[in-house]
Amino acid sequence: MAEIFFSCQPIFDNELQHWGSELLFREGLENKFPSIDEDTATSRILSANFLASNAKQKLTRYIVSFGESSLLDEIPLSMPSQHLIIAITDECSPTAELVSKLRAYRREGYRILMDGKVINNEWRNYLELIDILSISMERDNPADWEYTISQYPQQVFLARKVEKQEELEAAQSYGFALFQGYFFEKPQIVRSEDVAPSVMSLLDICIIINKNPDDIDTLAKVISKDVSLLYKVIASANILAKTKTSKISNPRQAVVYLGVQALRRLVSLLIMSNLNHQHAAQLQNAALSRATFYSMLSIEDKAFNADEAFIVGAFSLLDVMLSKPMADIVAQLDLSNDVKRALVNKEGIYGHLLQMSHDIDQANWNGLVHWCNQLKLSDKSVLKDFEAARISTADITASMQV
């Protein structure tokens, strides 16, 4: 597991209602700029905030900064347009390629933010692409912007560094519509846990996409072998889903829904995040072993589905990996009620599997026999499947070492 820190500073509208928040990557609890490059910082924020925390929270807008590389690689498309405001860093120049990408983002519904100084530099010919212009009150007098604001009614102006009541009132009177600063609230440093997919899994996905992008089954198989990647792919599919007729609850469904391009963007984001931490390897291996074990069982019950059993096993240790309550984690995913009941409360047929696994791990053979009787299974057959799953998982993880 890796700890991810980011600064979260709220932004308010003219009625002083919470409009959204700006996210900035931090290396620890101190609110200072990190010593890593912009693209890596951005990718870590997106991975931790959208894919490893509660993506369905009430807050609807995040401002996240993107450098040229991330923009050209279409990393913002990994996140829903209704939640993401794309802030373009000062280092970006309006090249033909970048301008084309920004037009594409606008067509997809994303809003774009830039510093107000672009009005007077090479970006001034592309202001129609910019929805929000930010002005630092530490640097500029808001009165100096009154005429400019009146000349650009299509843009929203954000006043940053608002420190005092009189500064807020002045900015409001001159036409600013959004406000951010210590007058409202100091930025909070948020700590999040993120679990790294295996680097080899990510590279395998890249190879398959490049060589045979239509091989859905192989993509799903590779994703299923890495618990963290499986979680992030399914989470991403559900986050991006605007309308669904059925739940996205297994890797094949997620790959089909995302499509090759979206999957490639997601993998690029995870690679850029530098998620090569292997602290959770033992937990991931244990979860994969459970998933394999459950899907191998021959249970004659109409409530049992091997794909759902696999997901239950794969996600059964995510609360430990992410240091979050299991109820919060499953709330992000459109899993079936049977899967949710099992993961959260150990109820139902899949809950019985989780309790049986626990008894096997604890060498509680009386407990094993009890659950085998409940599931109408032979305890000898179950232990044989358990050992086969353990060996299979060991073989898989040995091939994924980096």
TrEMBL record:
Pfam families: HDOD. Residues 189-381 form the HDOD domain. PANTHER family: CYCLIC DI-GMP PHOSPHODIESTERASE CDGJ, PTHR33525. This is EAL and HDOD domain-containing protein. It comes from Enterovibrio norvegicus.
